[in-house]
Amino acid sequence: MDQQKPPAKKRKLTDKNIPNAVLHSPEFSVDSQMYNDLLQMERKLDWTITRKRVEVQDAMGRPMTTTRTLRIFLSHTVSGQPWQQGENGASDGNVNVETGEGIPAFQFKIEGRLLEVRWTCGARRMHRTLSVLPQLPNQRAKDRVPPPKFSTFVKQMVVEFDRDPAQYPDSNTVEWLKTPQNHTPLDGFTVRRRGDALTRARVVMYLDQQPELYKVHPELGSILGIKEETRAGVIQALWNYIKLQDLQDKVDRRLIRADAQLRGIFGAEAIQFQHIPERVNRYLMKTDPIVLHYTINPSIPPPEKPVAYDVEIKVDDTGLRSRMSHVVLNMVPESAKELTKIDDEISLHVQSLNNSHLKRTFLHSFSADPQAFIQTWLESQSRDLDSVLGSGPSEGATLRQDDLRRSEYFRLPWVEEAVAVQEGLRLAAKAGL
After folding, report:
1. pLDDT at position 127 over 60
2. 86 and 127 in one domain?
3. How many other C-beta atoms are found inside a 10 Å radius of the C-beta of residue 207?
4. Distance CA 102, CA 100 (A)
5. Within a 10 A sphere around the Cβ of 285, how many other Cβ atoms?
6. Which domain holds residue 72?
7. pTM of the entire structure?
8. Distance, CA of 307 to chain centre
9. Which of 89, 154, 245, 383 is the most buried (most CB within 10 A)?
10. Which residues, at least 6 apart from 281, have a Cβ–Cβ distance to it below 8 Å?
11. Type and span of the H or E element at 339
12. Per-residue burial over 225-234, b = 16 or more CB atoms within 10 Å of its CB, e = otherwise
């Protein structure tokens, strides 16, 4: 069974340029120039929007980071302490070794929250405030994105308790390392140890930042003016320095010449551009860990409020990414259809203007000199008929002027077909087919 061919698409009019006859007419020169200026402005605006859209799409493919504040809370609780047993009226001999009930112990807690940035308008300026829980207006609870948990920002953590291992044989050093097996997001960590003596805790924390942040060696950092940066950021800073100092070879642009400061970094007078990342990696080191100190005194009740530390970290800027994605996607469905509709309307108006100009020229010429206009029009029609029939003075002048003056001559059977052929050739030539 033959498949039915889809109907041919209707050809849309896209020509928005004013005809040259109207453009060069002294009567419409001012208006025509204003319209051409608008067309030129539209072309520049379309080019700018397209370029910006490409830049946004390119930027979305690269990591977009922002600096946020991670608030770390340190606290502790105690159980089975002498002052607690006295309050509960329990005796010293009420001890359960299996469950740990009655044995002096403490629980050391390490928790963290990523603070949300909120902007509030004051009398004269904007105020930046931080809050633990996000408070977004007009947002349903089920639409809120849960904030990342504390363990997602930690790569490795070591907790050290400063106490006598002979008296307290339990492990005084606890280490947690993020691995694919234990990468379950956690709000915090709790370490339980037995004891009733004053204990000083030391927390060593290595942050997991994406992309990974490195400490730049002072030899290279003093040249670029940076202390900590991502690998891509260090390479970009070095490339900016090379362009600023004009260190590219004039002939071979892949060759980088070393100045007095970069000679020690490169280890040569010149290196190839593709070897720059290898040289940069030699001067990248692991960032210093975050070291926090906390004192646990089981002999007194623990403080009501935890100790808080604020740490600046770099995280993926999801807000900026979503806004950029909205700019790219929102331009396609609604705005593009509306712009296409407006362009079609402009094209129709331009075509109508061209038709009106042809009618106006026709009537103006006829009113100026009717006799000369009719004579010129008949001569033009005669030449067109000669072209259709392939005859004329050069072919023996088969058509006589007297025949052309008689109306019956144009009612012959072949005239309609000849006119259709001529009109088709004219339209095809006009359309450039």
Report:
1. no
2. yes
3. 19
4. 6
5. 11
6. 66-137+144-203+292-312
7. 0.58
8. 38
9. 154
10. 231
11. helix 336-368
12. eeebbbeebb
Strand partners, 95: none
Write out the two tokens for 318: 């999801």
Residues 186 and 246 in one domain: no
Does residue 341 belong to any structural domain of this protein? no
Angle between helices 370-389 and 413-431 (to 10 degrees): 90
Among residues 273, 267, 311, 308, the alpha carbon closest in space to that of 289 is found at 311
Token pair recorded at residue 175: 């280490």
Model confidence band, residue 341 (pLDDT cutoffs 50, 70, 90): confident
SS (HEC) of 231-270? HHHHHHHHHHHHHHCCCECCCCCCEEECCCCCHHHHCCCE
Looking at residue 344, its pLDDT comes to: 85
- Counted domains in the chain: 3
The tally of CA atoms less than 13 A away on the side-chain side of residue 332 is 5
Q: What does pLDDT average to over the chain? A: 80
CATH of residue 271: 1.10.245.10
For residue 190, the model assigns a pLDDT of: 94
Distance CA 103, CA 96 (A): 8
What is the rounded distance in angstroms from the CA atom of residue 241 to the CA atom of residue 266? 14
Contact 117, 128 (CB under 8 A): yes
Of the listed ranges 120-134, 174-188, 205-219, 324-338, the one predicted with least confidence: 120-134
Size (the chain), residues: 433
The answer to whether 325 and 56 are in contact (CB under 8 A) is no
For residue 357, tell me if it sits in a domain: no
Confidence of residue 401 (pLDDT cuts 50, 70, 90): low
For 63, 67, 311, 312, the CA distances from 117, given in Å and listed in that order, are 20, 11, 14, 13
Residue 378, CA distances (Å) to 226, 332, 414 in order: 85, 54, 19
